């Protein structure tokens, strides 16, 4: 007798993006993990997360697939912003604002690591929540264009980040859907107030 398939989880497409926050990763060692204070980043238009090295290393033996090794995860995380204030650029790119309020970029600037979180509204009016635990920004792509009479082209800032696993625990991303798997709206209210710490009960 055929078994009845388990019911499908609820399907609802994502339709929004907001409440982007960043938190500096201050210490990430095998013994210690510490993040700094959260900073809200307004003006997020689009975010995309793309795996860069997902292909496994497959070993064949006895004419079969014998063993599989997966590389450490590395993602490209791209954010399109309405604008990126200079104070935010100073933080994420490791630049410096001088005494006159001018942002100075130097060849020795070294972008630090951050956690980045945001939420995306779904078509059922609930939210998907995302944290990337360890990301580093690449140099900013800036766009400028002249006004053409009455036609105005908006210039946006694109930031490309490289996301990798944490040294402390190997984790690199957390994703939650409101109303699924016991993740309630109440949990969602605090999800972006601090970098999420997983709660996993050991299996007996």
Quickly list its features:
two-stranded antiparallel ribbon; 204 residues; 9-stranded antiparallel sheet; single chain; globular; mainly beta
Compile the SSE list and pairings:
Layout: E1 18-28, E2 33-35, E3 39-40, E4 44-51, E5 57-61, E6 64-69, E7 74-81, H1 86-93, E8 96-97, E9 103-104, E10 113-121, E11 127-137, E12 157-164, E13 173-177, H2 185-191
Number of strands: 13
- Helicity level, as a percent range? under 10%
Main sheet attributes: strand count, strand direction, barrel closure: 9 strands, antiparallel
User: What's the mean pLDDT score?
Assistant: 90
Shape: globular
Topology order in helix (H) and strand (E) letters: EEEEEEEHEEEEEEH
The gyration radius over C-alpha positions equals 21 Å
Terminal CA distance = 32 Å
Helix and strand content put the structural class at: mainly beta
Task: Please indicate the percent range of residues in DSSP E strands (runs of 2 or more).
Answer: 35-45%
Summarize the structure.
The chain has 204 residues and is mostly beta strands. It has two helices and 13 strands. The chain is globular.
Commentary on this structure:
The longest helix has 8 residues, at 86-93. β10 and β11 (127-137) form a beta hairpin. 18% of the residues are buried. The protein has one domain. Strands 1, 2, 3, 4, 7, 10, 11, 12 and 13 form a nine-stranded antiparallel sheet that branches. The radius of gyration is 21 Å and the shape is globular. The protein has helices at 86-93, 185-191; strands spanning 18-28, 33-35, 39-40, 44-51, 57-61, 64-69, 74-81, 96-97, 103-104, 113-121, 127-137, 157-164, 173-177. The protein is mostly beta strands and 204 residues long. The chain has two helices and 13 strands. The model has no long low-confidence stretch (mean pLDDT 90).
């Amino acid at each position: 007798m055929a078994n009845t398939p388990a019911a499908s989880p609820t399907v609802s497409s994502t339709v929004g993006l907001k409440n982007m926050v960043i938190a500096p990763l201050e210490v990430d060692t095998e013994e210690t993990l510490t993040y700094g204070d959260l900073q809200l980043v307004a003006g997020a238009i689009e975010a995309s997360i793309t795996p860069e090295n997902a292909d496994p290393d497959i070993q064949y033996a006895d004419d079969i697939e014998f063993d599989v090794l997966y590389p450490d995860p590395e993602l490209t995380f791209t954010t399109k912003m309405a604008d990126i204030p200079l104070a935010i650029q100073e933080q994420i790119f490791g630049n410096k604002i001088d005494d006159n309020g001018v942002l100075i970029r130097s060849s020795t600037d070294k972008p630090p690591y951050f956690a980045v979180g945001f939420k995306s509204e779904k078509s059922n009016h609930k939210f998907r929540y995302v944290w990337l635990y360890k990301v580093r920004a690449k140099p900013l792509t800036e766009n400028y264009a002249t006004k053409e009479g009455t036609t105005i082209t908006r210039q946006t800032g694109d930031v490309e980040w490289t996301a990798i696993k944490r040294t402390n625990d190997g984790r690199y991303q957390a994703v939650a859907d409101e109303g699924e798997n016991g993740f309630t709206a109440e949990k969602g209210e605090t999800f972006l107030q601090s970098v999420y710490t997983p709660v996993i009960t050991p299996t007996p």
